[in-house]
Design brief:
251 residues, alpha/beta, Double Stranded RNA Binding Domain, seven-stranded mixed sheet, 6 helices, disordered C terminus
Length: 251
């Protein structure tokens, strides 16, 4: 009987030890996940024009709508490929807020133009003087959209009519040098709404002879290629990057 008691006691102790061991091996609770940065794409002001012999250059609403839709979709897809970004919808704005937004975008254009200037020639020596600050003018948008970043895209695309292209070929055949007027210019900027600054900007130009352009953002494929190429260097700003440091940002 005494031996049976001792054996039972030993088994109880072993079970208790096993229980403690299992408890010790239980994984600790995972740390809370960091929310994905939220990106707001502001209404695009990109416009597609058609050039013709008789009417000159005029905007084409259907082409413009197609280009804007494809560019906006490409922006969302490209940001997600760069990290765990979440694209948020544009909130409804009052007329006063819309006016304020237009003014602030105008300021951003001036800052970007200044940044581009610092990328040229002797100006690059003074690149450290570039000030990307935009102030608190877009704080209302940050609060309303709950966004961390805002994206601005503008520019234009010109498509030539068949008559214009034929005329260029005819002039070229006669020995007259001609520069084509077709192509696209896409400008893009990313704003850090929390730190109230232009974080990044880049631009691409596609102007080629005889109306044949590799850039036609009326199509989803071309729009994706353009945005992907622009953001290939993100978050490095090409105009501000120094040869010794390829990772200079506009913070």
């Amino acid at each position: 009987m005494r031996g049976q008691f001792i054996a039972t006691t030993i088994l109880v102790c072993l079970w208790a030890s096993a229980g403690v061991a299992v408890a010790d091996e239980t994984p600790s609770a995972a740390p809370p996940e960091t929310p994905a940065p939220k990106v707001l794409v502001l209404p695009l002001t990109f416009t597609v024009y058609q050039g013709s012999l008789g009417a000159g250059i005029e905007a084409v609403p259907d082409w413009t709508n197609d280009a804007r839709r494809h560019l906006e979709a490409a922006i969302g897809a490209t940001f997600k490929s760069h990290g765990d970004f979440e694209v948020v919808p544009m909130p409804e704005l009052t007329e006063e807020e819309k006016a304020n937004l237009r003014d602030e975008i105008g300021l951003v254009h001036q800052i970007v133009a200044s940044g581009v200037q610092f990328g040229r020639g002797e100006w690059h020596k003074h690149v450290d003087n570039f000030d990307p600050s935009i102030g608190d003018g877009l704080d209302f948008l940050r609060q309303k959209a709950q966004a961390d970043y805002a994206v601005i895209v503008d520019g234009s695309e010109i498509r030539q009519s068949g008559g214009q292209i034929f005329m260029q070929f005819a002039l070229a055949a006669a020995g007259v040098g001609v520069v084509g007027g077709a192509g696209a210019n896409v400008n893009m900027a990313v704003l850090d709404l929390e730190h109230q600054a232009v974080q990044w900007f880049n631009s691409t130009i596609g102007i080629e002879a005889f109306g044949v352009s590799t850039v036609d953002v009326r199509t989803a494929e071309s729009a994706q290629k353009v945005i992907s190429q622009l953001m290939k260097v993100y978050p490095t700003v090409p105009a501000l990057a120094k040869p010794a440091d390829a990772h200079v940002h506009a913070h």
